């Protein structure tokens, strides 16, 4: 894919947009203005969504990699343009290690088309949804706990700033070397009176992750993000969206929306998760938003605060060597293999065996945990041969 060099085009800097509601005096505002005014090169496409395409980008002056989200400015994209403007206004005012950083914004001309560009930090791991596809389709509980803790930290920060994300899901949580961060604020809202966002008869978010009160067009407040968080935990545990069986494989989300609104049910809790995780999810899935737990409360839940115990297999004591033939060989390939294999259960969740989706578990374990080596009997044969000499 070819690259686009912004030095050939006219750009409108981030600072000039401040009259439209963007706060250029945030703690990292100086860098944002600088980021938008320097030349940069558009690289490969790394993502696309409802609000435009995302490319890898390179700062020509310092070599910094970042991501640029772009959308063509035309009448067909009016709603998307408003969503991007909303994202710039909200994201540029935030400064948290659990929220992706906005580096700037500009307008440019590319091939005769007017483009609105938003610059954000590059998260090399992609989204949680992308990561699940690369590593078995789902995550084990210890990793889910870690990711959920970071997502909750981000949600708590947003709510303290009187902002509701409105679209928490795996695709909107990005992964990098520093951890996971909330992203995609096109649907985000600032809270109205009484800490509840006025829905204005609209639903914002992704249908299968929506809370009942959002589907009912009643309200969309902080509690709605908590419901969506619960759906995201289910997504990480199963690799599937909640209500997917009702939505006919996501082919008909409106059936699921009707079910979420009319029934008194909550999403099914995966059997692969612990009772501690189930209790956490029940607090997320209270259908009445007034009794649903807050982000601050959930950060104190044992599912978040407790670590999963890891049981190491006891090591057999080495016999005292009576001759050089009794020393364990440092060139014994079987010994190295056993050591590595025995480490695998320590890194994996002890709850993995409960996962219903891992049906051929016996075969899976037989590949990772082979029968013990017969090296001990071989050692006995060596000693018998030595005695005969």
UniProtKB/TrEMBL annotation:
Annotated region described as Disordered, given as residue ranges: 309-329, 361-381
Biased composition (Polar residues): 372-381
Start and end residues of each Protein kinase domain: 40-304
Naturally occurring in which organism (per UniProt): Marchantia polymorpha subsp. ruderalis
UniProt keyword list: ATP-binding, Kinase, Nucleotide-binding, Serine/threonine-protein kinase, Transferase
Residue positions binding ATP: 69
Presence of keyword 4Fe-4S: no
Protein name: Protein kinase domain-containing protein
One GO term of the biological process aspect: signal transduction
Family assignment from sequence similarity: Belongs to the protein kinase superfamily.
MF term (GO), any: ATP binding
Keyword Ubl conjugation tagged: no
């Amino acid at each position: 894919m070819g690259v686009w060099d912004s030095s050939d085009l006219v750009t409108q800097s981030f600072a000039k947009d401040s009259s439209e509601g963007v706060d250029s005096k945030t703690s990292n505002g100086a860098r944002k203005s600088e980021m938008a005014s320097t030349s940069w090169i558009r690289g490969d496409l790394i993502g696309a969504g409802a609000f435009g395409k995302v490319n890898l980008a390179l700062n020509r002056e310092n070599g910094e990699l970042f991501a640029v989200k772009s959308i063509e400015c035309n009448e067909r994209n009016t709603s998307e343009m408003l969503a991007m403007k909303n994202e710039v206004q909200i994201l540029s005012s935030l400064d948290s290690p659990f929220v992706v950083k906005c580096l700037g914004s500009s307008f440019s001309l590319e091939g005769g088309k007017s483009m609105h560009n938003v610059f954000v930090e590059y998260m090399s791991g992609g989204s949680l949804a992308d990561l699940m596809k690369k590593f078995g389709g789902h995550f084990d509980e210890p990793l889910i706990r870690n990711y959920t803790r970071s997502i909750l930290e981000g949600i708590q920060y947003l709510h303290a700033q009187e902002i509701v994300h409105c679209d928490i899901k795996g695709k909107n949580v990005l992964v990098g070397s520093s951890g996971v961060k909330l992203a995609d604020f096109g649907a985000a809202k600032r809270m109205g009176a009484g800490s509840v966002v006025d829905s204005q008869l609209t639903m914002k978010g992704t249908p299968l992750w929506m809370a009942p009160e959002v589907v009912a067009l009643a309200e969309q407040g902080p509690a709605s993000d908590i419901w969506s968080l619960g759906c995201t935990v289910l997504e990480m545990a199963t690799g599937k969206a909640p209500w997917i069986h009702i939505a006919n494989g996501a082919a008909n989300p409106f059936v699921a929306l009707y079910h979420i609104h009319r029934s008194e049910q909550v999403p099914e809790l995966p059997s692969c998760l612990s009772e501690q995780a189930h209790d956490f999810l029940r607090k997320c899935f209270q259908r009445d938003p007034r009794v649903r737990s807050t982000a601050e409360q959930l950060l104190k839940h044992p599912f978040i605060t407790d670590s999963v115990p890891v049981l190491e297999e006891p090591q057999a004591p080495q016999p005292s060597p009576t001759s050089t033939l009794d020393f364990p060989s440092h060139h014994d390939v079987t010994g190295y293999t056993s050591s590595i294999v025995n480490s695998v259960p320590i890194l994996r969740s002890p709850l993995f065996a409960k996962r219903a989706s891992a049906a051929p578990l016996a075969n899976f374990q037989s590949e990772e945990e082979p029968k013990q080596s017969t090296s001990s009997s071989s050692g006995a044969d060596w000693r018998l041969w030595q005695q005969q000499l």
